Amino acid sequence: MNILFTSAGRRGYLIRYFKEVIGNGEIHVANSSSDSTAIFFADKTIVTPLIYDESYIPFLLNYCMEYRIDAIIPLFDVDLRLLAKNKEKFERMGVTVIVSNEKIIEICNDKWMTYNYLKSNGYEMPVTFLSLEEALDSLEKKCTSFPFIVKPRWGMGSMLVYEVANIEELKVLYKKVRNNLSSTYLSYESEQNMEESVLIQEKVVGQEFGLDIINNLSGCYENTIVKRKISMRAGETDAAVTVDDVKLRHLGEHLSRIVGHIGNLDVDIIKSEKGTSYILEMNARFGGGYPFSHIAGVNLPRAIIAWLTNSPVEGNELKAEAGIAGYKDINMISKEIERGAERNEQSRGMLSKI
User: Fold this and answer.
1) Cα 137 versus chain centre, distance
2) Whose CB among 7, 64, 80, 281 lies 3.0–4.6 Å from 76's, allowing a Cys bridge?
């Protein structure tokens, strides 16, 4: 069993989790930059073309054939939709791409679609506007009030996310997000509709939670792990504790049956002071909150390998112990750079020497 992780970035812990259970197989890590820290934990690494380069999918297909890859697990939102779109090409080679269908990926990546999809299915969502004019009109009619959150429609992490407290800040930061999108990797998705690429959302005050909603590779529900967030850093959970919240577990099960995703669905929720649970966003992949489920006893990597090999999954593999708190640490990783070596676009597609 050989597994390839694409756009692995800094998810070194996830590579370690899979290496612990892969047995005689190999873990391969692909990234468009050799500066990815996840590559230090892999058996083999590869620097790929950029995701939106026309050679990206052919490059991955060739790599899978050469190194007998059995499964691909993408770890970056931009990568998900492209791999979902080309899933059949890999399947014809005998490679399982662990990604949900293209429609689900589109709904999760597009926060305006997320808002409308979940509202239409009866879920509570923060009041959200697709234009500055709509938000200002709502304020004038006193239907909403500050603070608001201004963020990219196709956003990731905390990039270009701002809290605004008055109309002046709203106008300035709305324009700032709109203007700055083109200089980030978020521009790839935002170019679909640059005129409607920024969302304005009423801020909900309360306790934040993260859910890992786990489905098997057939899209059937397995379990929901609930974590109460203690702190956040750069849009990612920095500390959290597993909790046994029956209502949120039932919400996760219901959401699983509606979405029908593959693998993990990472969901952010905020429970207001009145007890209403609002869904903030969904990520159809391993999220930054998964390690807190893992240290509490969940072993989704082992379950995925079992599903790939048609082996039984033990009853406790996808269960978490409540009351386990986790905290992310900062560690240094070093590598020697050859003297005179120049990193440029020509290095893309070459095997890493690390």
Assistant:
1) 33
2) 7
